[in-house]
Amino acid sequence: MKKLKLLALCIAFSALVKGPLLAQTEKLHIPDIPGYLTLKGDFHMHTVFSDGHVWPTFRVHEALRDGLDVIAITEHIDYEGFPEEIEKNYNKSFELAKEAAGNKELLIIPGVEISPRVPPYHNNALFVTDANALPSDYMKSGKKEFVMKENMTREQLMAPFSEAKKQDAFVFYNHPGWGWWDGKDTTLFTSFHQELLDEGILKGVEVANSGKYNVIAHRLAMKYNLTIMGNSDVHYDVYPRYRDSHRPMTLVFAKEKTAEAVKEALLARRTAVFFDDYLVARQPEAEALFKASVHVRTEQKQRKKERTLIVHLYNESDIPFEIAAKSDYDIEGLPLGRVTLTPRDTTTITLRAVWDYPDETVLGIEVSNILVSPEETFKTSFILRNEEK
Ligand SMILES: [Zn+2]
Ligand SMILES: [Zn+2]
């Protein structure tokens, strides 16, 4: 009994000391950037209307709990999990979610997933006006099993994309390289994808799916100038998978919180992906978000005969930033200038032996958990001005 009590105490204590930095149930604070709202989105999820296991209203409940601003429920147009119980109607899935969201602070975007097991593989179409109008004639059976026709044609595979184009949808390539990779095109960018790109249909790619980073997808995003997306692709409940961190999300930098503004931002490629402790973004969005999150204040201090410059970096966001600071002065106590800017906390860096305070000096920052390409981490700098002069 005593042992048990001690164990309970130890567990309680260790939870206090090193509890998860970000609990899934907490609403994450990610600041707006100049000129744009930062909307937290998840544009890929399923319900019982295809191969998911929850009702659409539950997706709304989860999204509100997790503090998301926008979601899309994206049923497979070519698969029905419960054909006897649920009539095939993908507009219904959207309507139920929309009704559940009511006038709450959550946008619901209509969407579907086109999901053949051959090129062009899985793609989501967002902002469709009639989800049921997308044909899936490449299927032999999609009722409780996924069987494609043996003699399906290229036309049949392209048909749902043509319809998506007609409906002015935003199409993105889901989880490139997932199980059905045929090995014929190792870049995973096939002639189908080239055609979709040439037709102006393909606009984005999932760089993170269900919490996993995809380097091939990131390369495709850079090479073909596609919008960077990161989504849960959840089929069951979100919570268990992400209980110790947070669900993956696409951050959308939108002019306002409306579906139209989300679409404009996606088309303009103003997004970032946040999964685990990583951010994936292009340089301008990485710069804007990092500078909106981290606020700098300097202070001059005399330490006996030595003069130092204290730099206070306050991180107002819930994203931890793993930085390496660089300065012309010596950085005290931090090998290679490495330190973590903990969420909602101030980190202090001391620059030593600053005999003559300059009017300004540059603090270089490299952030190892922000990727601006598959090979490059984000780099920026702060100009530290002498405000005491
Ligand atoms: Zn898929
Ligand atoms: Zn999916």
From TrEMBL:
Single GO term (MF): 5'-3' RNA exonuclease activity
Signal sequence residues: 1-23
UniProt keyword list: Signal
All residue ranges annotated as the Polymerase/histidinol phosphatase N-terminal domain in the record: 41-118
Keyword Signal recorded: yes
Record-linked InterPro entries: DUF5001 (IPR032165), PHP_dom (IPR004013), PHP_domain (IPR052018), Pol/His_phosphatase_N (IPR003141), Pol/histidinol_Pase-like (IPR016195)
UniProt cross-references to SMART domains, sorted A to Z: POLIIIAc
Record-annotated membrane-spanning stretches: none
Taxonomic superkingdom: Bacteria
Pfam families reported for this sequence: DUF5001 (PF16392), PHP (PF02811)
Gene3D superfamilies tied to this protein: Metal-dependent hydrolases
PANTHER family per record: EXONUCLEASE (PTHR42924), POLYMERASE_HISTIDINOL PHOSPHATASE N-TERMINAL DOMAIN-CONTAINING PROTEIN (PTHR42924:SF3)
UniProt name for this protein: Polymerase/histidinol phosphatase N-terminal domain-containing protein
